[in-house]
Amino acid sequence: MMSFLFRLPFPLQFTGQIYILSVALLFI
């Protein structure tokens, strides 16, 4: 999953990481 994000262009990579972090915070 993380390796997939690293292949994206920078803006999508940034928003993707924020999205994953927000989802992870919901599950904590």
Automatic annotation (TrEMBL):
This is Uncharacterized protein. The lineage of its organism: Eukaryota, Metazoa, Chordata, Craniata, Vertebrata. It comes from Anguilla anguilla.
